[in-house]
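Journal club side-thread
Mid-discussion, someone asked how the predicted structure for our own chain would compare to the paper's figures. Pasting it here so we can look after the session.
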Amino acid sequence: MTTVYLNDQLLPLAEARLSPLDRGFLYGDAVYEVIRCYGGVPFRLEGHMARLAYSLGEMRIAASASALREVPARLVAANRLGAGQALVYLQVSRGAPAVRQHAFPPPDVPPTVFGYAWAFAPRPEWTTPGLTVILVPDVRWSRCDIKVTSLIPNAMGHQRALEGGAHEALFVRDGVVLEGTLSSLFAVVAGEVRTAPLSNYVLPSITRAAVLELCRDAGIPVREAPIFEHELSRAEELFVASTVHEIAPIRAVDGRALPVAQPVTRRLMGLLTELIARETRA
């Protein structure tokens, strides 16, 4: 039976109850994190907690990210997921006031905190032969740096990719390819790894930061600079990075095949695997 976390309690999923007036349900007025655990150990937990604190602060939700630091480990243990890989989802909403209204609830309305964990195994085709992606217009709101639960443009873009036989969709705004619906985008152009610089249109991905760190430590040329749509045709390699994918090569964009050789991407995949093993060694 799945055990979840709800407002300081661990309880069976079937017994978890949320008010229909919760603002996460009514407005998508909530923030979240997804954390990957290896052998029961969360990868880059401090980074996830720092990003959660940032999202809470920007959304003015009165909750403490640091108070949730132990929740991933508790959920993994309660669900007996420590032997393999698992994903942990944490969500904090603005709570459930007595009356639905656009204005924030009174200060005495507590946030709603929910978390759950499940066993996870990456799909082999993500890495061999790699992902196929499509380009979609970026119709998201202008605060993509906040990890909010209101993900309709992401969900619609991702569904469009799946229905077109692809794995992921990449958002394009004003000719710049920013990121995927659930991943960061990297390009290798003239031997240099490039990813869009952080802005209000780019999520500060934990895995993105790890890839930049790995490039700099390994002496791989890297730069945070825009990736223009017209440059995709001359990119030597493209790959995505995320908590779910780790690093996954892209083999085709809008049906156009990319070069089969992916030496930089494959090297970074190996370096990330080593980094994860070092940092999650129990």
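Post-session note: The chain has a mean pLDDT of 97.
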